[in-house]
Model the fold of this input.
Amino acid sequence: MSYPSAFDLAGRRALVTGGTGETGGAIVDRLTAAGAHVTATARNEPRHSRAADFVAADITTTSGAEEIAQHVISRGVDIVVHTAGGSRAPSGGFSALTEADWAAELEFNLLGAVRLDRLLAPTIAGRAHGAIVHVVSLQADMPLHESTLAYAAAKAALRAYSKGLSNELAPRGIRVNTVSPGFIRTKAADALVERMAVSRAGDTDAALADLMEQLGGIPLGRPANPSDVAEVVGFLVSDAAASVVGADVRVDGGTNPTV
Done:
């Protein structure tokens, strides 16, 4: 697939964290198709990936972030897309979350991106097409208190951090933006429905209906696909978005309209 010149990423080097997940993998595919050399990173190497190379590392640790940074800095990096994230905490609301649950959700959904940005921003600043995209979540605005409160809080913090970072890095030639997906039908989403079904005697249909109700419905009539998110990311890191800084693009089918 070819892209118009403004969307072309030929010659650019990108890093995608969480590159083995369904959304991260779609972003890897999208950037690769546009001509970028893409390095993917996650805890475990995927069986199949279009990424040019891969780093098996854990961004929730300092050593893992440093390993990733050393790999891409030695080769050059223009684009960083933080897709790594998700919720592993139990359902049951606020009282079910332990100190360890909160720490894990913050590390995975906020601090991993912060520590990697800190390591990579000085290198990106010296290049011509610097861009950082943080994949946030609809839950930053509409938290699901019963099942993913800590995740939602971490994503809200990531969005606030991104806004501040965009103001700091724009004068250095790095555009920072966020993408906030709504309900995306992935294996992770299905796992969330299964966890929510535990308190409903295993009724996944009831859990899915409840989830949709909590999200406020989807006017478009369908959940988003990973490729929908990837296309928005591809736009934001390209020259077509050369003056887009500090923006949050919702990919939620109209669940939380901003107009």
Summary: The chain has one domain: 5-251.
